[in-house]
Write a structure and sequence with these properties.
The protein has seven helices and four strands. It is α/β, with parallel strands linked by helices. A four-stranded parallel β-sheet has the order 1-2-3-4.
Amino acid sequence: MLNPSSQDQVFSCSQTTIDGCTRDAQFYTPYNYHRALIWSGVMTALSHLDPAFRTVASLQAVNEPVMDANQTPGYGQFQKNFVQVVRAVELALGIHVRGVAPLSGPSSSRNVTGALSAASSSPNFFNSEVRQVLQDMVPVLIKVAQQLSLNLIFDQQGLRVQLKRRSPLITNFMNVNWQYNNPSNPADAKKGPQAYDNHMYYSYGGVAAANEEAYMTHICNLDRIEQDAALGNSPLWFGGP
């Protein structure tokens, strides 16, 4: 799973494990949402185009957002746009996504950038923000592809055939119960395969006695999986030290 622990402007405050430790989480603005969506689109494309990324199965939107949903305005719409961007890129590449109708325009394109441009002209499929992201990611992808010597021509090196055999990425979010104060539910954004991430921290103390038996007893009696499943956040996996 590709997990953006800290995109520019930081997801949450006072995180000492990331590059930008700050008291002010500045990520939650339209400008930074847009930038994050562009990079998400690029990473989706790389995951399918670059052999070095062939083992990538999932892409996470945000790692550990601020827990108070009142401090993350627009995050719910960002979740929906994130999924749409991932799926738009995959549909443009000719990758089948179960339950999502294929696009007709990109199928006649000669190369990846042309397919993305064609997808950006599909108002019946994607909202205006997603369409703009598809346009804005093209020059970024071109630059990255040049640096990595990637083929973007569908009829060269069997690229079109290879892409049709690819499975869509699993979009991944922190679970809805990570936040409080009426948080948005990432299950509402689902299109195609999706999973959810829950972080359990023992290192800070106060959860269980500091020994293996206490940890295992606590884990085996958690009801988080059931609580999240009731809200559509399934499958759920756990992370955290």
